[in-house]
């Protein structure tokens, strides 16, 4: 088990270094931040002084090594545009993104699991076919199209919900939440629905596939032969055996939702990490862009490593497969 943990940790470190290196290489070609930070009347001396102060006159390898060394200590530098601590800016935006992802995940589970069960046990009904067709639409439509459609229907036409923003928030220590206020709860509904639509489709299809397989198993046949009611068979016995893959997939998808929430946050002007990243790209704010990608990559790596370790603890054969 120790060798397994060491190998997984080494893989995680390698992935983080690779992501950091690739991000730094890409950001070298997005523009010169000095040109955006200074006006057109700035002299060459002022430009050189700012470039030296930001460390942009150093070779690429030196800049990358300095970034990795500081990032390992939790220091991602200073924002070129705002002249503020990058980690503090991301920490300020993280609660908004985290709440959006958690609400979207809950919506996907609450809607996707019953839909998956219904489409499995009522395969020939019209409403099961309608759910299957709707799931195809959910997979096909881009999230920004879904977001714009939700805004058009529920904000512009019906006027039921706000079209943008997070609403009123409440500070609990360093954490800010909008779930404790009415405007905050109303503001999170549309972006969470937009973000969860693809996830609902994944959960529904996974539950349906697992349910169909479980319903063909021998213990389900024995349960029917004993006269156990169909409702108990479907929801007490079959569904329980379907939930482990769903939980695993949901945990893995949380990292993806955090990473790809930037489109939803941009459409709804949700003040999260994704919107901060888009603004950083606009102004070539390299420290924020690099820090965002590293933090998202770290979330992915931690979730994957946690799942691998959990599987290895449950099934010791996986540890031997690593040798």
TrEMBL record:
Source domain of life: Bacteria
Major localization class: membrane
Any Gene Ontology CC annotation: plasma membrane
Keywords noted in UniProt: Cell membrane, Membrane, Transmembrane, Transmembrane helix, Transport
Topology in membrane: Multi-pass membrane protein
CDD domains reported in the protein's UniProt record: TM_PBP2 (cd06261)
Pfam families on file: BPD_transp_1, BPD_transp_1_N
Cross-referenced Gene3D superfamilies: MetI-like
Positions of transmembrane segments: 12-30, 100-121, 133-160, 188-207, 242-263, 275-303
Localization: Cell membrane
UniProt key word Lipoprotein: no
Any single biological process term in GO: transmembrane transport
ABC transmembrane type-1 domain ranges (all copies): 94-307
Protein family: Belongs to the binding-protein-dependent transport system permease family.
PANTHER family: ABC TRANSPORTER PERMEASE PROTEIN, DIPEPTIDE TRANSPORT SYSTEM PERMEASE PROTEIN DPPB-RELATED
This protein's name: ABC transporter permease
């Amino acid at each position: 088990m120790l060798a397994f943990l060491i190998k997984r940790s080494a893989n995680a470190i390698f992935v983080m270094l690779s992501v950091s290196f690739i991000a730094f290489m890409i950001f070298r070609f997005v523009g010169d931040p000095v040109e955006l930070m200074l006006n057109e009347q700035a002299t060459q001396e002022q430009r050189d002084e700012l470039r030296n102060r930001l460390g942009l006159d150093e070779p690429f390898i030196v800049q990358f090594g300095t970034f990795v060394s500081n990032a390992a200590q939790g220091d991602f530098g200073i924002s070129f545009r705002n002249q503020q601590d990058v980690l503090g800016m991301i920490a300020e935006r993280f609660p908004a993104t985290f709440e959006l992802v958690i609400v979207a995940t809950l919506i996907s589970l609450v809607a996707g699991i019953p839909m998956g069960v219904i489409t499995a046990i009522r395969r020939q009904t019209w409403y099961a076919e309608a759910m299957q067709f709707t799931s195809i639409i959910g997979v096909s439509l881009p999230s920004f199209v879904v977001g714009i459609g939700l805004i058009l229907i529920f904000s512009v036409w019906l006027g039921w919900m706000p079209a943008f923003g997070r609403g009123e928030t409440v500070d609990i220590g360093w954490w800010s939440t909008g779930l404790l206020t009415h405007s905050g709860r109303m503001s999170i509904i549309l972006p969470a629905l937009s973000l969860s639509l693809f996830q609902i489709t994944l959960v529904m299809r996974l539950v349906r596939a697992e349910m169909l397989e479980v319903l063909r198993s021998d213990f389900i046949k024995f349960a029917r032969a004993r006269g156990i009611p169909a409702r108990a068979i479907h929801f007490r016995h079959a569904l329980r055996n379907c939930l482990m893959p769903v939980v695993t997939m949901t945990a893995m998808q949380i990292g993806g939702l955090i990473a790809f929430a930037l489109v939803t946050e941009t459409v709804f002007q949700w003040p999260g990490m994704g919107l901060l990243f888009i603004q950083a790209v606009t102004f070539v704010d390299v420290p924020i862009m690099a820090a965002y990608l590293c933090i998202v990559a770290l979330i992915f790596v931690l979730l994957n490593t946690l799942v691998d370790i959990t599987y290895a603890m449950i099934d010791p054969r996986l540890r031997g497969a690593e040798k």
